[in-house]
């Protein structure tokens, strides 16, 4: 028997809710895994993987999911409260990323190693620069009158799109880090593949959540 449109919609919302909850758990679990693996404080370098995973795997994931109608932890809160939390999480993520970048640069300087000579290093630098620009660009949503030639609806669409691109860049950098000597020495076999699956899973969930819950809806609005 064919399903009614209402039943299909209910099933779809349920699947999106389950995928969102999974993203919450995976981002938290992966960050805890990286904290245990890196043991922040055991060396100067140890702070780099911890801060970067905290920034891009946990804080940025939560900052984007806060607007999800099905899986946001603040579903009952006002739009204004969600925006404030989004800003707080994104600024905290940027701070962790900048600190993580500064630490790895200083650590390489102390050890006489070249900077940004690997795909991970180059992608990581691009991601941090992109995240910084994205945060500055987000100010246009706080002061839309400064952008006289742009409507608020368009600014929101562009900001959401750019934010998703930045998140995917961060996940790519995290995955490239898993090919580093430090990570492959500590994590091998099935554990390595499971770790790699974490940013892939959250990326897929966030792409679906952002595009369907925000971008597509904005496109059909007059």
Walk me through what this model shows.
With 222 residues, this protein is mainly alpha-helical. 77% of the residues lie in helices and 0% in strands. Helix 1 runs antiparallel to helix 2 and helix 4 runs antiparallel to helix 6. The longest helix is centred in the N-terminal third of the chain and has 34 residues. The protein starts with a helix and ends with a helix.
Helix content: over 70%
Please report the number of helical segments.
8
Average pLDDT value?
89
Structural class: mainly alpha
The biggest beta sheet reads: none
**Low-pLDDT residue spans:** 218-222
The proportion of residues in beta strands is under 5%
N-to-C span: 36 Å
Large-scale geometry: globular
Give a count of the beta strands, DSSP E runs of length 2 or more: 0
Radius of gyration: 19 Å
N to C succession of SSEs: HHHHHHHH
InterPro entries: CYB561D1/2, Cyt_b561/ferric_Rdtase_TM
Organism: Pelusios castaneus (West African mud turtle)
Enzyme class: translocase
EC number: 7.2.1.3
Supply database-style keywords:
globular; disordered C terminus; mainly alpha; 222 residues; 8 helices
Summarize the topology.
Layout: H1 5-38, H2 47-65, H3 79-110, H4 119-137, H5 139-142, H6 152-177, H7 181-186, H8 189-220
Helix pairs in contact: 1-2, 1-8, 2-3, 2-6, 2-8, 3-4, 4-6, 6-8
């Amino acid at each position: 028997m064919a399903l009614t449109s209402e039943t299909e919609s209910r099933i779809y919302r349920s699947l999106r809710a389950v995928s969102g909850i999974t993203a919450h758990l995976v981002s938290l679990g992966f960050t805890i895994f990286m904290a245990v693996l890196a043991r922040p404080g055991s060396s100067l370098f140890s702070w780099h993987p911890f801060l970067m995973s905290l920034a891009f795997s946990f804080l940025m994931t939560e900052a984007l999911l806060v607007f999800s109608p099905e899986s946001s932890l603040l579903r009952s809160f006002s739009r204004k409260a969600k925006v404030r939390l989004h800003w707080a999480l994104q600024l905290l993520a940027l701070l962790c990323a900048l600190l993580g970048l500064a630490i790895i640069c200083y650590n390489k300087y102390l050890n006489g190693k070249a900077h940004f000579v690997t795909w991970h290093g180059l992608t990581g630098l691009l991601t941090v620069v992109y995240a910084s620009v994205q945060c500055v660009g987000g100010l246009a949503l706080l002061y839309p009158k400064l952008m006289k030639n742009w409507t608020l609806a368009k600014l929101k669409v562009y900001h959401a799109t750019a934010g998703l691109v930045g998140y995917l860049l961060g996940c790519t950098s995290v995955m490239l880090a898993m090919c580093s000597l430090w990570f492959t020495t500590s994590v091998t076999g099935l554990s390595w593949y499971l770790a790699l699956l974490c940013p892939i899973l959250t990326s897929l969930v966030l792409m679906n959540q952002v595009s369907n819950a925000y971008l597509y809806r904005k496109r059909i609005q007059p």
